[in-house]
Amino acid sequence: MDSQTPALLDCIERETGAAPAWSVIWLHGLGADANDFVPLVPELLRKHWPAIRFVFPNAPVRAVTINNGVRMRAWYDIVDFDLANRADETGVLETVAQIDALIAREAARGIPASRVILAGFSQGGAVTLAAGLRRSEPLAGLVALSTYLPAVRNAAAALVDGAARQPVFMAHGTQDPVVPLGAGEQSAAWLRQAGFDVDWRQYPMPHSVCAEEIVALGDWFDARFAAG
Q1: N or C: which end of the chain has fewer CB within 10 A?
Q2: Which of 100, 114, 207, 208 is flagged as catalytic?
Q3: For 98-115, b where at least 16 C-beta lie within 10 A, e where not — what string?
Q4: So where are the chain's domains?
Q5: Which of 119, 109, 159, 110 minimizes the C-alpha distance to 139?
Q6: Rounded to an integer, what distance in angstroms lies between the CA atom of residue 101 and that of residue 84?
Q7: Residue 207 DSSP label
Q8: H-helix segments, 8-160
Q9: Is there a catalytic annotation at residue 122?
Q10: How far is CA 36 from CA 108, 123, 126, 187, 197, in A?
């Protein structure tokens, strides 16, 4: 392994058929783990879809500042309640490198970036958007649920040529007490201004996922598979 390549994250994998043609890498939220969204797979799946490998990585365990330094699974430290300063940018970039390594592993297993969807909830969704900005080799799509674009003041500098070719699905609860609806709306607006095709949905729910959202996400997946 190259000294610059991060060690691969521990992952749970579920394959929906033999010889998967697509991969979905799904990042959990703060304090959760790789098991969190595994039960979603049968709810999301549709019979006519191609075989998919779902990859659910575990975030590293680290101290989280706003939680009094308690150690938990986190994709980056949260240093402030203010969204503008919330994310530890160094931690975000370290995690982006780890996600890029998982995407490269999928390519080595026969699934190119053009057939990989990167998804995440809350903190995992923030990493998904941060990684998407930096993808010169576009993914099939980005899914960002109940989340925001971290370090938006530096986002324009991070955006690389070709990244905006990645379609984005964003969904948010109107009653979210953790990541305010406005933060998601502002992030979606920024992405649209940067040239991304953003499918934005909002639902009367707190910081969670609802059945209507899963149906809409399934429709969005349909479009990705048809385009691929």
Answers
A1: N
A2: 207
A3: bbbebbebbeeeebebeb
A4: 11-227
A5: 119
A6: 28
A7: S
A8: 40-44, 89-108, 123-133, 155-158
A9: yes
A10: 26, 13, 17, 24, 28
Structure tokens at 204: 């009367």
Task: Take residue 36 and report the two structure tokens written for it.
Answer: 């969190």
CATH architecture for the domain at 11-227: 3-Layer(aba) Sandwich (3.40)
Please give the structure tokens belonging to residue 194. 């940067």
Q: Which amino acid is at 7?
A: A
Question: pLDDT (tens digit, 9 = 90+) per residue, 74-131?
Answer: 999 988 766 656 667 888 999 999 999 999 999 999 999 999 999 999 999 999 999 9
Instruction: List the catalytic residue out of 23, 122, 146, 187.
Output: 122
Encoded tokens for 138: 């576009």
Calculate the average pLDDT of the chain.
93
Which one of 36, 77, 88, 176 is the catalytic residue?
176
Active site residue 28: no
Structure tokens at 8: 């691969």
Residue 36 is a catalytic residue = no
